[in-house]
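Is dihydropyrimidine-2,4(1H,3H)-dione placement plausible here? Inputs below.
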Amino acid sequence: MKTLIKNGTVVNSTGTAAADVLIDGETIAGVLAPGSTILGFDLEANVDTVIDATGRYVIPGGIDAHTHMEMPFGGTFASDTFETGTRAAAWGGTTSIVDFVVQYAGENVIDQYNLWHAKAAGQCAIDYGFHQILSDVQDSSLVAMDELLHEGVSSFKLFMAYKGVFLSDDGQITKAMQRAASNGSMIMMHAENGSVIDLLVQQAVAAGNTSPYYHGLTRPWQAEEEATHRAIMLANLTGAPLYVVHVSAKQAVEQIANARGHGQNVFGETCPQYLYLSLEEQLGAPGFEGAKWVCSTPLRSREEGHQHHMWQSLRTNDIQMVSTDHCPFCMKGQKDMGLGDFSKIPNGIGSVEHRMDLLYQGVVDGQISLERWVEVTSTTPARMFGMYGKKGVIQPGADGDIVIYDPNGHTSIGLNKTHHMNMDYSAYEGFEIDGHVDTVLSRGKVIIDDNQYLGAKGDGKYFKRGLSQYLI
Ligand code: DUC
Ligand code: ZN
Ligand code: ZN
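Reply from A.M.:
I modeled the complex. Tokens:
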């Protein structure tokens, strides 16, 4: 099966050019000057399918390197399964996810890893990889870190918050970092000071301050900055590379930028919610509405300038990439467990479907360039997490994971409009996007076209990742 995407504007992180893309089977076979022939053969007459991309961008499929499909958390499960969540991702132009295998204290890491494979196998619409969460860092967990590298899991996430659930103490973190430093893997960190947050939460609830807004006030930027700094120091001590997930506070960005400025391998990810949503407007919505946006790290104050700083950091590369931390919960039966006590609201926002569109809006608004859009949503995730070459770029030999994006199209975000995630609300209800995901190919197969899903569950395969390209 050969497909030719002709007359489009191919956008890679390195540049933009008018080009035709030839896909042979699952793989890109050529990126050619428009109208090229091969050995005198008219390409168009010798392929099975021709897609005319006139007036549209042809970009590498999005890679969302931070999702939590069907994650057991907060007394319930994230509402998107691997099936529904990856299908929604495809609708939004994301062709790969990297999801997190969960290990709670006492559980065996390898058992959990096998369990996550059983959950995802045969379910996914797009390709998927795994990071491994470590909570208690048992001796067997350290051995598992080496074993998992051979399975294509080259990144391990630790939490400095959620005591009694995920939190690893500084000794446990140090142990895992020592192992990462020696085996070449990446440490990912949820950087918030859990003890401080737990105290502030207790005090707020005891004082009767129980609305969702207090979720934000009890997870202040100081708790994020302090933990980010501590993680950087432990990484410095051990020599481990550090990737800080869901950075929301400008002070945490400054810690990351400072460490990078001193030559340390420290990287930062932010998420669409920290670029668009705020403490005042969303978490502070009347009544229990704010529960829709309870996630951690929390939405920050627009007045304090976190959002503005985050866009700037994305442009200047103080922050390297954007993932969603997709962890959806429905209002009914899930978020409403926290009616009368914000601390019982399951933490998470779903946006796997909207990341590419929301970030494209940054191009429209003049915050980032077209190439930078591709870089932060696809190329850097591929490089950061050992997928580059196959993913994150349109070049011969890469997987045929391609999105045809119409800059003159329009996308209305909302529950009843474009929403395919398994959520009973949209965190971005009413957002209007200048741009539209027209066609999505996953390893050469058209899975979205003309507002129709043409794929099937099981199209997506496990992707064995290598080491990060940013490390030597
Ligand atoms: N934060 C969330 O909001 N949800 C999942 C886990 C996390 O760290
Ligand atoms: Zn986290
Ligand atoms: Zn997360």
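Short version: The chain has two domains: 2-59+391-407+432-453, 61-384.
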